[in-house]
């Protein structure tokens, strides 16, 4: 009895490939029955996105500005030798950073709850 085998690493090709005919067009998405793709979102510039995000959660930019202001004023006070005022402003900066982190977390939670509804 002789069995028909193919050498390891080689496969038999049962179909012939025609070099000029392609079964699909690479420039268009595939057509799937019963599926309608969502429209592509519009392109949004930096300014428009910043304004939209600020309207969604206005406390994050407020916290960022507070952090930057406390840091700047604290460094100026430190340079002038006002160590007590500088220490107070560094503590204020930590508070402002915490406020910003909490604002981000609240915004994420609100967005998650809004998408569930």
From TrEMBL:
PROSITE patterns: HIG1
InterPro entries (UniProt xref): Hypoxia_induced_domain, RCF1
Protein name: HIG1 hypoxia inducible domain family, member 2A
Pfam families: HIG_1_N (PF04588)
Gene3D superfamilies: 6.10.140.1320
Phylogenetic classification of the source organism: Eukaryota, Metazoa, Chordata, Craniata, Vertebrata
GO terms classed as biological process: mitochondrial respirasome assembly
GO (cellular component) term, any one: mitochondrial membrane
Annotated stretches, region: Disordered: 1-25
Record localization: Mitochondrion membrane
Keywords, comma-separated and alphabetical: Membrane, Transmembrane, Transmembrane helix
Residue stretches spanning the membrane: 59-78, 94-113
UniProt entry tagged with the keyword Iron: no
Record field: compositional bias (Polar residues): 7-19
Domain HIG1 as annotated: residue spans: 31-117
């Amino acid at each position: 009895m002789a069995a028909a085998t193919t050498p390891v690493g080689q496969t038999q090709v049962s179909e012939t490939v025609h070099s000029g005919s392609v079964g699909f067009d690479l420039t268009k998405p595939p057509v799937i029955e019963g599926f309608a793709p969502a429209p592509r979102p519009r392109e949004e510039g930096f300014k428009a996105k910043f304004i939209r995000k600020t309207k969604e959660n206005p406390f994050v930019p407020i916290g960022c500005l507070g952090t930057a202001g406390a840091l700047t004023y604290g460094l100026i006070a430190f340079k002038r030798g006002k160590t007590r005022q500088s220490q107070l402003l560094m503590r204020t900066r930590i508070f402002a950073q915490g406020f910003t982190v909490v604002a981000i977390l609240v915004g994420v939670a609100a967005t998650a709850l809004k998408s569930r509804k």
